[in-house]
Amino acid sequence: MKYVSFTTASGQQGFGRLDGDVITDLSAQAADLKTAITEGILSSLNSETTLSLADVTLGPVVPNPDKVFCVGHNYETHRQETGRAATDHPSIFVRFADSLSGHNQPIVMPKVSTQLDFEGELAVIIGKGGRYISEQDAMSHVAGYACFNDTSVRDWQWHTRQFTPGKNFPTTGPFGPYMVTPDEAGDLSEVQVTTRLNDDIVQQQPIGDMIFPIATVIAYISSFTPLKPGDVIASGTPGGVGAKRNPPLWMKPGDTVSVEIGPMGKLVNTITAE
Known about the structure:
Elements: E1 2-8, E2 13-19, E3 22-25, H1 33-38, E4 50-52, E5 56-58, E6 68-72, H2 76-82, E7 91-95, E8 100-101, E9 107-109, E10 116-117, E11 120-126, H3 135-138, E12 142-149, E13 152-153, H4 154-157, E14 173-180, H5 182-185, E15 192-197, E16 200-206, H6 214-224, E17 232-234, E18 256-260, E19 266-273
Parallel strand pairs: 6-17, 8-14, 9-19
Antiparallel strand pairs: 1-2, 1-5, 1-14, 2-3, 3-4, 6-7, 10-13, 11-12, 11-17, 12-14, 15-16, 15-18, 18-19
């Protein structure tokens, strides 16, 4: 199944199940998608109320996660292009929830930088929380998957050795257009993460090429902090980022960037100036 979070033309926020271009509005039965996931009732919800996808604005799939984790250098192609040494453990950093945005929403290039870069990624949404989750059990804790663009303001990312500033400008975490449940997503090992800038493919690599698979990442993160339903893990980007091209390829106002991942659909955003 596919689920979306949305805002209506009147400003009402809600969530629902997406079938084609029709949303079954589930908002009357739970406060939001995260609540439905937390209470374990998502798959049982139904409603007679429907909306047209064309009549709503899609927000981040989970607009209010408690935690958003990102995995750095999780594809060998990206690790090599950055010159980073191989590590025995995943490289984890965090995003703030208010840096997230939705499908077809603008990514705002901040006025303090011209080094805006793309990073297409698979997002993992946690369905069942826990601490010290084993790799063997990790995938049973997944509620679903979505496309993610870990848009990076590179000069701010590189001010120091800490990534936080360059990864948390407003609107730089597009996340959507919808969440796909694991049963519908199926085996993702051969599914390609494809990033396009305008009409050009700039990143493309199968999910199975991750250095640290999803189960390993979930187990690792849950070893140092409890995972909660609705938490988001952006699982890393393939090689091809703009910063490591010669000359660098920065996104600019007017550009359109997309992340497409098989059953998770295509996340599309346009760059605008602050």
